[in-house]
């Protein structure tokens, strides 16, 4: 889902509903615009507005939760990479090839998690071969004392945890916003704005106010959808944790 396109369609539908309400006002007979009618419509629209606010809250919570979860995953992956590299440093110079393999894997992972705007490459898709290569490289280390045996065991456990975290990050890449919920929000907002236009005086001030409000609501939907795409768009999870770790690998 492209947030800009969806937000643009939402704005067109919401603001268009307000303009339609103004046109309907001119076509309705006077008895349909009585005070009692307005009060009844306002009560009904108040209920719709409450449900819309609750649904918007659910969308915000879902998108923000997904964003925070994947941000935490990135930080955990960076910390595990840094810990694994330090464990291999303490192990000794025999682990230099393993550390070089780790550095190359991190270099390859960063552009796959945060693909370039012109790239058609999909987000992070870890492969079994990558995990096996790293695991085999550590497994081939021949510890000479108890300290090295402990470090090797810890490095193997960290490699398994790191692979698990990468697969989890890949599995969470799908959007968390359910399309029917998004459609319902836009539809309910359009109904609310239709009622605004139905009982609002047709003048430039009202049209401008409804335009700004519709634009604001559509911008909120845009931000929700951006939060739901944490590795692309305007609101991205920072790659700095992994890049900072990468700058220290091999040193």
Instruction: Determine the structural class based on helices, strands and strand pairing.
Output: mainly alpha
Oligomeric state of the chains present here: single chain
The best one-word shape is: rod-shaped
Share of helix, binned: over 70%
Largest sheet: none
Rg from alpha-carbon coordinates: 27 Å
- SSE string: HHHHHHHH
Number of strands: 0
Calculate the mean pLDDT score and round it: 86
N- and C-termini, Cα separation: 42 Å
As a percent range, the share of strand residues is under 5%
Task: Using brief descriptors, characterize the structure shown.
251 residues, 8 helices
Q: Could you give a quick summary of the protein structure above?
A:
The protein is built from eight helices and no strands.
Commentary on this structure:
With 251 residues, the chain is mainly alpha-helical. The chain has helices at 3-27, 35-91, 96-113, 128-139, 146-171, 179-199, 204-227, 240-248. The longest helix is centred in the first third of the chain and has 57 residues, at 35-91. The relative contact order is 0.21.
Secondary structure layout plus pairing:
Blueprint: H1 3-27, H2 35-91, H3 96-113, H4 128-139, H5 146-171, H6 179-199, H7 204-227, H8 240-248
Helix pairs in contact: 1-6, 1-7, 2-3, 2-5, 2-6, 2-7, 2-8, 3-4, 4-5
């Amino acid at each position: 889902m492209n947030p800009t396109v969806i937000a643009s369609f939402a704005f067109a539908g919401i603001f268009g509903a307000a303009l339609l309400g103004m046109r309907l006002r001119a076509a309705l007979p006077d008895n349909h615009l009585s005070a009692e009618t307005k009060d009844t419509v306002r009560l009904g629209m108040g209920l719709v507005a409450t449900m819309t606010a609750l649904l918007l809250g659910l969308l915000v919570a879902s998108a923000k939760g997904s964003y925070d979860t994947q941000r935490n995953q990135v930080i955990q992956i960076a910390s595990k990479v840094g810990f694994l590299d330090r464990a291999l440093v303490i192990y000794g110079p025999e682990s230099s090839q393993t550390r070089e393999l780790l550095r190359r894997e991190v270099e390859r992972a960063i552009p796959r998690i945060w693909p370039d705007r012109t790239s058609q490459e999909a987000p992070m898709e870890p492969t079994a071969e990558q995990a096996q290569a790293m695991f085999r490289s550590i497994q081939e280390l021949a510890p000479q004392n108890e300290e090295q045996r402990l470090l090797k065991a810890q490095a193997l456990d960290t490699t398994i945890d790191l692979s698990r975290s990468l697969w989890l990050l890949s599995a969470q890449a799908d959007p968390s916003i359910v399309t029917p919920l998004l459609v319902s929000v836009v539809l309910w907002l359009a109904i609310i704005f239709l009622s605004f236009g139905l009982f609002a005086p047709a003048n430039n001030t009202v049209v401008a106010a409804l335009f700004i409000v519709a634009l604001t609501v559509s911008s909120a939907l845009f931000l929700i959808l951006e939060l739901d795409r944490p590795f692309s768009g305007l609101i991205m999870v920072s790659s700095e944790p992994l890049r900072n770790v990468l700058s220290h690998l091999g040193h």
